[in-house]
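Data availability (excerpt). All sequences and predicted token strings are deposited with the supplementary files. A representative entry, glycine oxidase, is shown inline so that the format can be inspected without opening the archive.
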Amino acid sequence: MHERDVVVIGGGVIGCSIAYYLAKRGARVTVLERDLIGSHSSSAAAGILGAQVEMAEPGPLSELCVKSRSMFPDLASELYRLTGIDIELIRTGVLRIAWTREEAEALYKRGVWQRERGGTADWWDRDRVRSVEPAVSDRIEGALYIPGDSHVSSSRLTRAFSYAAELLGAELIERCEVTALRAGKDRIERVESDRGTFQAEHVVLAAGAWSAALAGKLGLRLPVVPVKGESLAVYPRRALFERTLFAEGCYLVPKADGKVIVGATERAGDFTEWVTMDAIQKLTSEAVRLVPELADSTFIRAWSSVRPGSVDGLPFIGKFEPYRNLFVATGHFRNGILLSPVTGQGIAEMIAGEEVPDLKPFSPNRLSQP
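Structure token line:
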């Protein structure tokens, strides 16, 4: 029997962030990962920190995203000092492209409410966009420029969280599949796996799209929606644009090594791992539509991953009733990278018995009952 303070089930960016923030507090943490650390959507993500570009309306999620985005500059420095890993935080902003007048009007209004809430979001017409990013198509209407949004290397961030957690005393066990959760009246007593049995004061379920199946082992309903996403990467012949370009149909993220990530499809309810020709055709077509010169790029590779969504669009973060020592952190959908620090910090605070008001709207109990 392995005895720990906390067992975290799931070794993606969320699980590793939780382990890191718990280990910073001195907790004895074990992370159980069925495959390899960060082997699913955490490493497949483009790494956009889209606290504003992804938000169509104000609310608790947009506020949480902005808070988490603000943590990244200090986090990047902290992780680099601890691990020597540069998470490649690139703060050049995002252009949210409008192809039509209707899109332009909607984005202009989005900019208004974001500015009213303290954000920076400026409407640029076509000429202004092309004066700073001349490779962008001359067929756009304009774009909402969001200088605060940025991007990181998702794989480096996950690796930095996991390595930092280990340096602080956490244990990460790969190729370890959880087979059962044994519960008493109001608490999880044991976590059983094909690598042994673990006993802990607290258990965190952070297994992404597979969290619902694990909750089901306890007879609990956790309505996580799997959403498959397909992406690809190309090398342009020259650097074509500096800012992330986000449009209907695709986004283009220029990474530190010169490649451009083109993403991403959305296929709800799909757990398959392959990439379809249809996805490649749609993504390449939209990418060339947005930046015509990308047609001469060198194709590198395509990949897919399954992201954990939810029926109401909000993540599940918090204590999962009726068990007083069971916590959930999943359902982040396209914002797992962005929300990883605020989720990790928040779960660590909850386990320490602290109140975390910012996370109350995301309680896993809000949708857990039929």
